[in-house]
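Blackboard transcription, Thursday session:
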Amino acid sequence: MAAVLEKPIAKVDELGPPIVRITALRKSYGTNEVLKGIDLDVKRGEVIAIIGKSGSGKSTLLRCINGLEVFQHGSLTVDGKPLLHESAMAMRELRQHVGMIFQNFNLFPHLTVGKNVMLAPTLVKKRASAEAIAQAKKLLERVGLAEKFDAMPDQLSGGQQQRVAIARALAMEPAVLLCDEITSALDPELVGEVLRVVESLAVEGMTLLMVTHEMSFARKVSNRVIFMHQGRVHEMGPPADLFGKPQTPELRQFLSSLHD
Amino acid sequence: MNDFSLWDILRNLLMALRWTVVLSLIAFVGGGLVGGLLLYFRLRAGKVLERFIGGYVALFQGTPLLMQLFLAYFGIALFGIDVSAWTAASVALTLYTSAYLTEIWRGCVASIPKGQWEASGSLALTFGEQLRHVVLPQAVKIATAPTVGFLVQVIKGTALASVIGFVELTKAGSMISNATFRPFEVFSCVALLYFVLCFPVSLYAKYHERKTYGRRA
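(Written on the board underneath:)
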């Protein structure tokens, strides 16, 4: 029980409709099926960690949620609206609700840090310049980089770049944030500063879906852990259960392989 | 007939040089516009159009410019349209330039990491916004040196327009040579003038290349 109390108390909306609903989702590359029927409801404010071996389909699942990957069967709704790949309008609408942070940061190298954060709000949300600047400064302050507003991305460390990427995603005020192995490209000493920012988001009630290899972090901040294996949700539950008493041999093997 | 001084030769060549410059500019501006349009369709459209444009590029890269000029000059005339050497040369050089430029630029756009498209896409930017604000500003930097370098090819390529009777530098050179019987002097001057035109352009391309790539190293 003590372990549970230590956790940041994310405000999960247990009763409301799910913010993300994935039903019988299947995706294949040619004849190779990588997602073999995924069902998942994500509640508002929930923090979900997706773990599993490489090639288990966890990144692909995440990338399906904002339409970076096209799936062949099943359905996916965000905030009740279905994801329609054919409709550019619908995709644009959906993507305003779903932010994404990438393993390799993917900052725009030709723009200053401030402009990286301001670009999407000014273009997509038609925000006035002064307002966008104020918002960008606030967000950069939140990720601890207020003084880097005019810096270029290549002048920053990996950890700083990733924090800018978080600020950039937050600038669109997304309802869901997808984190795709966001610390995997970082030097070990820079991982902490990024995870602290993500943790603060979790505490503030942001809905988070993160693919991660940081097991202790997953255990600490998530409400639910999903173990993916061969394109399926193999095991799912509260972190204490999944890490404490894994039910399937695959998960046991995966967890023990981490300690080697 | 030998009352042409070297200055007379040069003066007449300089008069013709402007048509070389004008034709180069037409080819470059026209080719740039058509090439840009083709690039947009290539990035935007489906496989059919992409293949069609690929074929267009292969056709113009796989045949000599001289043949393209002949075909433009004599081919369009077959349809009963009276084409001047001006029109034929402009059309042929524009198409030729557009094929090369669209290919150069496609390579530059392709060299922008996929993550840039993904990041801008997941921020809900439209295709046009992604292109204009994220991809092209980075691609233009890479494209400048090879594009300017290709301009040199176009300038030299205009010399071929002389065979369909377009009086530019080379044609003027052979006319003067026929009148003066001093081909060596005349064509030395012609070559010198091409060099004066092309060398600064090459130099600029090199300078720009160093400016773009030197900084990163």
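Lecturer's comment: The longest helix of chain A spans residues 188-203.
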